Predict the structure.
Amino acid sequence: MNIFDNLLSNVSLFKNRDVLRHTYTPDSLPHREEQINQLAILLSPLLRGGTPSNIFIYGKTGTGKTATVSFVGRQLEEASRKAKQNVVVHHINCEIVDTAYRVLASLARRFGSHVPMTGWPTDQVYDEVKKVLEKNRARVLIVLDEIDKLVKKAEEALYSLTRINSELSNSSISLVGISNNLKFKEHLDARIISSLSEEEVVFPPYNAEQLEDILRQRAELAFNEGVLEEGVIQLCAAIGAQEHGDARRALDLLRVSAEIAEREGDTKVRVEHVKKAIRKIETDYMIETIRTLPVHSKLLLYGMSLLSDVSGKFTTGEVYCVYKKLCGKVGVDPITQRRVSDLISELDMLGIVNSVVISKGRYGRTREMRLEADSRQLREALERDYRLQSLKEVANNFRKTNLESWIWSG
Ligand code: ADP
Ligand code: MG
């Protein structure tokens, strides 16, 4: 028997799993008609050879900003061909293209110029951009997605982009800035704000009903008929609505639920799969959060995971004892109990630890805490840090002795 036979004989739940990926943009976007119309009206001057106002878009993550702007951009390019205009929509993800130079270089390269991604003086790239735009009689719409990720230095470039039109005659640049961070504007230079947000479009969070519509539309494309059990879409939508109306979160949940059902060889995606998916996504999120923590926080968490196996709850003092011991094992100098206390507060805020301050009568106050994460999964996540890898053995020995003797042993 071929090892793949089993895998292939399973009936597939999916008709097309790609439509659940982040990169997929649907052909219609329910509950964004208003924003689509607004954008179309604001951008329509491009089709008559004019220059529209710059637009600033904001709304929380997963409210459909990127999808909507991509959709409108595609329609705009299509319409411009009919209108005999050279409208080019240049979508830039500022998390990746994060400096002034790169924004300009990527634009020049879009028109076939051989500007290297580093190395030239910025002025030279700027001149090259002007040259190629004029030559191509291009009306460019630059979408600066996640504009809050542009580094501070890039502000000058933003400013020069907003001013460039006065130096162009046959071509123009208009800007659409997209931000998840509503406070972003407070940090910007006033002259940039005023030219960047001549017009504003707001993307409000989706409610549970709207998310249900979005999920249903996607599920129809993604799954074979009758595959989703009653209640699956509702639960995914409800969770997405709790997460500040986040369509991405809801879609991820649906995808992961289906993957779990598939792995279990089930013929249907059921509510119980969604519940497992919620836990899996939370774990993935935890692993991602942990990855970026300072080593002392990681050691504290490692200690807590050991304590947690002994008893569900523990105090700052106990955590500090185990932490110091672990520091010795990995060759890191321990920090003071006071600073440890601050780090614990931080872990509490991240939702990995849950702590309460309790009064011990005349013995003062102490903090008691428990882990919000599964201790074994937490250790696995922490051991991904090479500095903590040697603790695997420590954890094994720990299990064989009791806490007191372990702390006092060599
Ligand atoms: P944002 O850019 O605001 O963070 P996205 O545009 O990336 O959000 O949307 C997140 C996910 O949800 C994407 O997969 C997108 O296709 C989907 N989505 C968002 N809004 C809608 C909608 N109204 N209809 C269909 N899918 C949507
Ligand atoms: Mg986005």
The longest strand covers residues 172-179.
